[in-house]
Design a protein that fits this description.
436 residues; Growth Hormone, Chain: A; two-stranded antiparallel sheet; globular
Length: 436
């Protein structure tokens, strides 16, 4: 199924229609992946009650169970992306993560849920390694930030889709109670939500059997080795190291906050799962477009002014600016004011994603892009996804020692992580200027 990669091309770039079709298909596949990985955040309270879990155990399920194995699979998936048909790779991965999301709805213990979350991580590692490389082979370098921003922007809206969809399903089932399903037994509301968000991905995966693998561009010579990748990283160690290290702080705050904001509204403001899904989810459906499109536009303007560090410079400022809304969002006197404060915070969360991928693509030879992107995800996600939800849960369980103070944990995390991440990213931007 995973045929060899096509040869390099010096032909004309694909037509805009074809290129943007690929971006949209990949973007919505990534949207499904974000729905499947994050919907658990809406279901924390019923899962805790049924499986008898602590906040820290929930944090492990949200973070480490998914993130560690997502990370471990990133490098081998990157190798496959550099050598084989990337469209087929994403097809296989999407089938796996969709089935494993549905399997979360069958979990009857911590370890069964842990195993299903591991499966989601393994499947989603495929699109993480392949997507930006596929997009880069459809657009010239000066035009890549916008499609990559659209890709990450739509994916971030997946959080909203998961929350709205999960809220609608929970609302519809609120008065029904446990539902008998032939062959599966009697399932509670939270279990049915996992089924409802996981299974549709099996249909979308068919796109990757239809779309043609793009020709590889912008390099010559034989396939690269892992030794060549390490040599390349060493040759760019300052800009790569600072970029990856700084982005870890952003990722930790982003994933940790998304994992616990729904719980904050339920515990602190008394909102129901359906209310949180509708309100928080709607915000995540709209606001990411502001951040994603804003990033593409700002980076392009910075490049037109001659800033070679445009992508990293934009990321640094977004990290710095998210400190204030990150601290204040969970300190507002009512839920609606908290929700309003999330508008700039969510926009700034989404803003850096496309720029970060573009910053990698612009300095990396084509034959190394799949593995370089995989290395990037391996490092930033090992820290961000694996530790984000656990970090905030640990603050709640061991610092504040009160599950009602989860909002204070989110504020403290923002006060620590945003300024540190911004400082490191400004250093990365400086290193990029010096490299040019």
């Amino acid at each position: 199924m995973l045929a060899a990669a096509p040869a390099l091309s010096r032909d004309a770039w694909p037509s805009p229609a074809r290129a943007w079709t690929v971006v949209i298909v990949l973007s919505f596949a990534n949207l499904f992946s974000f729905v499947d990985r994050t919907v658990i955040g809406l279901l924390v309270e019923p899962i805790k009650a049924d499986l008898l879990l602590s906040d820290t155990e929930i944090g492990v399920l949200q973070g480490a169970a998914f993130g560690v194995f997502y990370t471990l699979m990133a490098l081998p998936c990157g190798w496959v992306a550099d050598h084989a048909n990337r469209m087929r790779l994403v097809f296989v991965g999407m089938i796996v993560w969709s089935l494993m999301t549905a399997a979360c709805g069958l979990a009857a213990s911590f370890w069964e849920m842990f195993a299903a979350r591991v499966g989601i991580g393994i499947g989603e590692a495929t699109i993480a390694a392949a997507a930006s490389s596929i997009i880069a082979d459809h657009f010239e370098a000066r035009r890549r930030t916008m499609p990559l921003s659209v890709y990450t922007m739509i994916a971030s809206a997946g959080v909203g889709v998961g929350f709205v969809g999960g809220g609608l399903v929970s609302s519809a089932l609120a008065d029904v109670g446990p539902m008998p399903i032939p062959g599966l037994g009697t399932l509670d509301m939270w279990q049915l939500v996992f089924m409802a968000v996981g299974l549709p991905g099996l249909v979308w995966a068919v796109w990757f059997l239809i779309l043609r693998e793009p020709e590889r561009r912008e390099h010559t010579g034989s396939d690269a080795t892992w030794a060549e990748l390490l040599a390349f990283v060493r040759s760019r160690r300052r800009v790569v190291g600072l970029h990856f290290f700084g982005y870890c702080f952003y990722n930790t705050l982003g994933y940790g906050t998304v994992g616990w904001l729904a719980v904050f509204f339920i515990r602190h403001h008394g909102w129901t799962i359906a209310e949180v899904g509708a309100r928080f989810g709607t915000l995540y459906l709209i606001v990411p477009f502001i951040g994603g499109l804003g990033c593409g536009w700002i980076v392009r303007k910075l490049m037109e002014r001659g800033r070679v560090d445009a992508n990293l410079y934009a990321i640094a400022w977004s990290n710095a600016l998210m400190t204030v809304p990150g601290v204040l969002a969970t300190q507002m006197p009512n839920g609606w004011l908290s929700l309003a404060m999330l508008v700039p915070l969510v926009a700034l969360f989404v803003f850096p994603s496309g720029a970060s991928l573009a910053a990698i693509q612009e300095i990396t030879p084509n034959r190394l892009r799949g593995r370089m992107t995989a290395l990037y995800y391996a490092i930033t996600n090992l820290v961000g996804i694996s530790l984000g939800a656990v970090f905030i849960a640990a603050l709640t369980d061991y610092v504040f020692r009160d599950e009602m103070r989860v909002g204070d944990s989110i504020s403290l995390a923002a006060a620590i992580l945003s300024p540190v991440g911004a400082t490191i990213m400004f250093m990365a931007a400086k290193a990029r200027r010096e490299m040019a």
